[in-house]
């Protein structure tokens, strides 16, 4: 939006708001608290800085009125003073700024709302509701993100996403800026891998098919690795299965980060899938993605069981630190279990790359097909 000035300091904001007209405003990202927004508002020759509080996936200034995104908040306070010194009368437009909408339009990733047909809800993800629908006659999945903080995080990754196209990554088709953010992807009709395995079990899914799923995910992650990108939340729940039973890595658009990434303190890490060194330092690397892949392999060959069965999160953390590793799932091929445990090396540098993992899995797959 034109009134959003990005990461600037309080004094910089005050400078931009001169001459100070009552009701002139802008929104900035806090330098002291990255990821937090601040509403800067002129009134009686003063600039008031209102920190926008992020709570329960909603935004508020006064803990009375809550909004899904900044646009709704600005619209409300343009008509209602609330806890502000005055209503918002005039946005201070950022000089020469291209809005997210303009950038998306020029890059070809902004889709046409009139071509979208929203169908029934097919899930509730961590970041918002997921719907089935159609776009221009093609069946698609539609994820609606109403929260500005999450939507902004995704929009910042669109330049990365445009370079990612692989048969084992869920394909992003584009985004629509309406009622928050709509993310349009290919539709994966057989749902996530956990539910697929649990609902079918050993009688319907062969060991060969399990290996195929393991290879599919590994190839998708190898592609991310080759681009020096991370996933940060690799687990069977984030793997989707297509109509023709191909497994594809999903939700990487919201998680992806280059080379290494420090996770914000307010973001909960999935302890059962996270490498011990990442839990301590909150720094995610490709080595910690490999650890998560080992846990995902365990999920696949246990037909969707919860990892570390009957153990609490705190027990898992303590036991893994002391060297405990999960036992092999029932009827899991010994060589596959060896691959799993190689992903769980205490020293991150001793873990194999996804490229090496793919080689090992292809050898195992070849034995099954022979």
UniProtKB/TrEMBL annotation:
EC numbers, comma separated: 2.7.10.2
Q: Where in the cell is it found?
A: Cytoplasm
SH2 domain boundaries: 3-92
Where does the record place the Protein kinase domain?
116-366
**Which Pfam families does the record cross-reference, listed alphabetically?**
PK_Tyr_Ser-Thr, SH2
Q: Which UniProt keywords apply?
A: ATP-binding, Cytoplasm, Kinase, Lipoprotein, Myristate, Nucleotide-binding, SH2 domain, SH3 domain, Transferase, Tyrosine-protein kinase
Any single Gene Ontology cellular-component annotation: cytoplasm
Q: Which SMART domains match?
A: SH2, TyrKc
One term of GO molecular function:
ATP binding
Q: Provide the binding site for ATP.
A: 143
Family matches, as PANTHER family: TYROSINE-PROTEIN KINASE
Family to which this protein belongs? Belongs to the protein kinase superfamily. Tyr protein kinase family.
Q: What is this protein called?
A: Tyrosine-protein kinase
Q: Which organism is it from?
A: Triplophysa rosa
């Amino acid at each position: 939006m034109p009134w959003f000035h990005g990461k600037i300091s309080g004094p910089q904001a005050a400078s931009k708001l001169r001459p100070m007209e009552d009701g002139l405003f802008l929104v900035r990202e806090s330098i002291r608290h990255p990821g937090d927004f601040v509403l800067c508002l002129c009134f009686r020759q003063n600039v008031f800085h209102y920190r926008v509080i992020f709570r329960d996936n909603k935004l508020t200034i006064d803990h009375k009125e809550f909004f899904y995104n900044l646009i709704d908040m600005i619209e409300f306070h343009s008509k209602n003073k609330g806890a502000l010194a005055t209503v918002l009368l005039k946005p201070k437009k950022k000089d020469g700024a291209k809005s997210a909408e303009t950038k998306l339009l020029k890059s070809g990733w902004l889709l046409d709302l009139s071509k979208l047909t929203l169908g029934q809800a097919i899930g509730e993800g961590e970041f918002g509701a997921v719907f089935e629908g159609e776009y221009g006659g093609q069946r698609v999945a539609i994820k609606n993100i109403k929260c500005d903080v999450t939507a902004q995080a995704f929009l910042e990754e669109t330049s990365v996403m445009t370079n990612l196209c692989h048969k084992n990554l869920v394909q992003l088709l584009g985004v629509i800026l309406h009622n928050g953010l709509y993310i349009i992807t290919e539709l994966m009709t057989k749902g996530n891998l956990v539910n697929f395995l649990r609902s079918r079990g050993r009688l319907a899914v062969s060991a060969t098919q399990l290996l195929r799923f393991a290879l599919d995910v590994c190839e998708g992650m190898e592609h991310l690795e080759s681009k020096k990108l991370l996933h940060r939340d690799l687990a069977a729940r984030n793997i989707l299965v297509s109509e023709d039973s191909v497994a594809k890595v999903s939700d990487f658009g919201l998680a992806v980060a280059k080379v290494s990434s420090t996770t914000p303190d307010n973001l909960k890490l999935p302890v059962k899938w996270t490498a011990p060194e990442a839990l301590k330092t909150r720094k995610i690397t490709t080595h910690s993605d490999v650890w998560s892949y080992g846990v995902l392999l365990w999920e696949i060959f246990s037909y969707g069981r919860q990892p570390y069965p009957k153990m609490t999160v705190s027990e898992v953390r303590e036991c893994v630190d002391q060297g405990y590793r999960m036992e092999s799932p029932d009827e899991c091929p010994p060589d596959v279990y060896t691959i799993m445990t190689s992903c769980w090396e205490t020293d991150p540098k001793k873990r194999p790359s996804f490229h090496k993992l793919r080689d090992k899995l292809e050898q195992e797959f070849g034995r099954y097909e022979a």
